[in-house]
Amino acid sequence: MKNGKQITNPVHELDLRNTRLRDNMVTFFKERPGLAYSENEIKQMLESPNDRTTIYRTIKTLLKKVFIHKIVCENGVLKYALNDSKSDFDHAHFQCNQCEKVICLKETRVQNPKLPEPFEAEACYFLIRGNCRKCPDR
Q1: pLDDT digits (tens, 9 = 90+) for 99-138
Q2: For the residues of 8-49, what is the DSSP string, one character each?
Q3: Class of the CATH domain delimited by 14-130
Q4: In the prediction, which pLDDT does 13 show?
Q5: What's the start-to-end Cα distance of the chain, in Å?
Q6: I need a surface site. Which of 1, 29, 77, 129 has the fewest CB within 10 A?
């Protein structure tokens, strides 16, 4: 307890065993809502001494716990962003042609397509490419 308030550990809230990497990654995503990052970007920004396999396993764990979601960008590049709720898969994403940032567009809803029998959808990714107004050369 700190100042009479109980401190909750976000990793424990996900029902996971606490490790330094999990704690750092949970904090990383919570501090950057609406923005998506690749595995390499996460590793660089965390300045993590962990190897690629450990980071990949941690990402898979956070995906399984629905703490983050996956965005498939051009050329199959995967990026990951924080989920605001358990049903955070029905929105579009925007990728800037200049700065390459990927941003969740929560207000741009996407309906899952109706598939004919015998097909059943498990995921649907919607990526919009363009130029953000923050980039100088748009």
Answers
A1: 889 999 988 888 778 899 999 887 788 899 999 888 876 5
A2: PPHHHHTT----HHHHHHHHHHHTSTTEEB-HHHHHHHHT--
A3: mainly alpha
A4: 78
A5: 50
A6: 1
